[in-house]
UniProtKB/TrEMBL annotation:
The keyword Repeat applies. Residues 450-529 form the Ubiquitin-like domain. Its main location: cytoplasm. SMART domains: CAP_GLY (SM01052). CDD domains: Ubl_TBCE (cd17044). It comes from Melanocharis versteri (Fan-tailed berrypecker). Belongs to the TBCE family. It is found in: Cytoplasm, Cytoskeleton. GO terms for cellular component: cytoskeleton. This is Tubulin-specific chaperone E. GO terms for biological process: cytoskeleton organization.
């Protein structure tokens, strides 16, 4: 092997300036002198060809112009882990700021020489390295573990390591580093294109305490994840975005402690792939952003029932996908533990012109949802959404066989498939009355005015007052009106209302910036004023 070229250069990761690549060939090239490295570049625009030169194929590239030849002296094969840590934290020989250069210490203008200062400086560096708990050597060209046991001697207290975007070529290198860190809890090796075991191998104890692992942009497959996962007995969070994972397999006896799984930016074959990971018992958060899924279905549960899949799932992100049908939103109500959902940037979002209407429909369709697109769902907002949903689809319910009389109430399978929560909403609020189901009237000023009765429960001597108020009037402006009406400071007022259709139920008007229509107040309702 030529000088400057490691004996294991083939397959190694290198950097050249700001570019990264993988060595695919080491040797001579026709009609040229000396040794060349054939490199497949991460960024194909850095390359010139597909690994062939003057009709001879020296190596292969995935991209037709992803490869080129460089001289070995242009390639950086990287450094060992401890060297990178010392460089990153200014603790190497060249940066020994405490003792200056050589064996001298400066006191004012005098330079005093000490015998054995090199060893003292080294001891000081050792102490400082051993104090490090959270270490980041991102983009420090780390390629190998270094001398045997050097990491355990110098960085004994590390718990959290960021090794992202380095020159690590294989999972074995990661094991060699991690096996020297006794209490490793968090490891980020993202943006290292490396080789992973393809068959069951010796299970290392290097990750016996590991709880968080990031493998984004490492080209790992799901099969390789499951093989490696045998060595992750207590892992709780696994990040796998941008790995070209298309198919999943059941994780039998592995990943059983997992609470968070991120599969973002992997184009899954279809939504049914999710069924293969649906039995993970402790999974609380699943991130599926930009995975190409167009539908979600839990076939084990019927209308209004809960699925046995994803029993612990509380938070789900399905934004930036291809979901276009409301049936997928209906299916999410089957998840027994779902509390938070992100679903922005799906074709479904374009089905309603008014974004507020869209949000209300989602809230009404998923009964236990507490957070939607990072916004908390207030109790009054849920109540308003469910009442509106019940009213809007009441006519369809009647036409499909719905009836106020429970004995005659037999809505069609088609209606229940489209509106599986409708029966539950009728039980919660009562079946919609005929007067509620009239078609929407033109939005004239008269139609927008609400006739409301205003009462002061704490002042029985105050007679109820009837007022006509625009449904677009904010609670803050209503308080201002009542201040003038009752001669009391608006800031001290507490408002609520009772619906004429739901006796005994009182709803607080607790957001000054919201309009009356936000709370689904209707003509005939009673506003209660307290202070």
């Amino acid at each position: 092997m030529a000088a400057g070229v490691p004996p294991d250069a083939l397959g190694r990761r290198i950097s050249c300036g700001t570019d990264h690549g993988t060595v695919r060939y080491v040797g001579s090239v026709s009609r040229t002198a000396g040794i060349w490295l054939g490199v497949e570049w991460d960024d194909p625009q850095r390359g010139k060809h597909d690994g062939s030169y003057e009709g001879t194929q020296y190596f292969k590239c995935r991209h037709p112009k992803g490869g080129s030849f460089i001289r070995p002296n242009k390639a950086n094969f990287g450094v060992d882990f401890v060297t990178a840590v010392k460089d990153r934290y200014g603790l190497n020989d060249k940066q020994d700021v405490q003792y200056g250069t050589g064996n001298t210490v400066v006191f004012g203008t005098k330079t005093v020489e000490f015998v054995g200062m090199d060893s003292v400086a080294e001891q000081q560096r050792q102490v400082q390295l051993n104090k490090l708990v959270d270490i980041s050597v991102r983009e420090c060209a780390v390629s190998h573990a270094g001398q045997e046991e050097e990491i355990s001697r110098t960085c004994a207290n590390m718990r959290h390591i960021n090794l992202s975007k380095n020159l690590i070529s294989s999972w074995e290198t990661v094991i060699a580093i991690a096996s020297q860190v006794q209490n490793l809890e968090t490891l980020n090796v993202s943006e290292n294109k490396m080789r992973f075991p393809s068959t069951s191998t010796f299970i290392s104890s290097a990750f016996s305490n590991l709880k968080i692992l990031a493998l984004n942009q490492t080209e790992i497959t799901w099969t390789e994840v499951l093989l490696c996962a045998q060595g992750w007995p207590v892992l709780e969070e696994l990040y796998l975005s941008s790995n070209n994972i298309t198919v999943l397999e059941r994780p039998d006896n592995v990943l059983q402690t997992l609470k968070l799984l991120d599969l973002s930016d992997n184009q899954l074959l279809d939504g049914n792939q999710l069924h293969l990971i649906a039995e993970l018992p402790r999974l609380e958060q699943l991130i599926l952003r930009n995975t190409g899924i167009s539908s979600i279905h839990f076939p084990d549960a019927g209308f209004g029932c809960k699925t046995k899949m994803f029993p612990s799932l509380k938070r789900l992100a399905i934004n930036d996908n291809k979901i276009s049908q409301w049936s997928s939103i209906n299916e999410l109500d089957k998840l027994p533990s779902l509390r938070a959902l992100q679903c922005n940037n799906n074709p479904l979002m374009d089905t309603e012109k008014n974004p507020e209407t869209l949000i209300q429909l989602i809230i009404a369709k998923i009964s236990q949802l507490e957070v939607l697109n990072n916004c908390e769902i207030l109790p009054a907002e849920r109540r308003g959404a469910e009442l509106d949903y019940r009213k809007i689809y009441g006519k369809d319910w009647l036409e499909a066989g719905g009836h106020w009389n429970p004995e005659k109430n037999k809505p069609s399978e088609e209606f229940l498939a489209a509106h599986p929560r409708y029966p539950a909403l009728c039980l919660k609020y009562g079946a919609p009355e005929e007067g509620e189901l009239k078609g929407r009237q033109p939005l004239t000023l008269k139609n927008q005015l609400l006739t409301l009765t205003i009462k002061c429960p704490e002042k029985p001597e105050q007679k109820p007052v009837e007022k006509k108020l625009p449904e677009s009037m904010t609670i803050q402006k209503v308080k201002g009106l009542l201040y003038r009406l009752f001669k009391i400071p608006g800031s001290e007022l507490k408002l609520s209302y009772e619906s004429s259709k739901l006796e005994g139920k009182e709803v607080e008007l607790d957001n000054d910036l919201k309009p009356l229509q936000f709370y689904s107040i209707e003509s005939g309702d009673c506003v209660l004023v307290r202070w």
